[in-house]
Write a structure and sequence with these properties.
This protein has about 90 residues and is of the alpha+beta class. It has a domain of about 45 residues. It contains two helices and four strands; from the N terminus they run βββαβα. Strands 1-2 form a two-stranded antiparallel sheet. Strands 3-4 form a two-stranded antiparallel ribbon. The longest helix has 7 residues. The protein is elongated and about 55 Å long.
């Protein structure tokens, strides 16, 4: 591939991060990164919290998680991305 799977382009060194799946170290620019946004409360329990809330129209906060995987294989294994074409 054109960029060798990296986003470095002129930087000599980038720091390493740990994969969320296998804990392997990988350069930060090479890792596959995705944001996951989810509710703090499970969907089946939201109605209980809205009924018990003192404030009208209160929206429960969300959790913002940045997931990082070392290689395409880990991300495909966790079913976060699809299989890439051979081009």
């Amino acid at each position: 591939r054109r960029n060798g799977g990296r986003n470095k382009h002129g930087r000599g060194h980038v720091r390493f991060i740990r994969c969320d799946n296998c804990a392997k170290t990988v350069p930060k620019d090479k890792a596959i990164k995705r944001y996951k946004v989810q509710n703090i409360v499970a969907p089946e329990n939201i109605s209980y919290f809205t009924e018990a809330s003192v404030l009208d129209g209160y929206h429960l906060p969300k959790i913002y998680i940045k997931e990082r995987w070392c290689i395409i294989g880990c991300a495909i294994h966790k079913k976060k991305i699809g299989i890439r074409s051979r081009k």
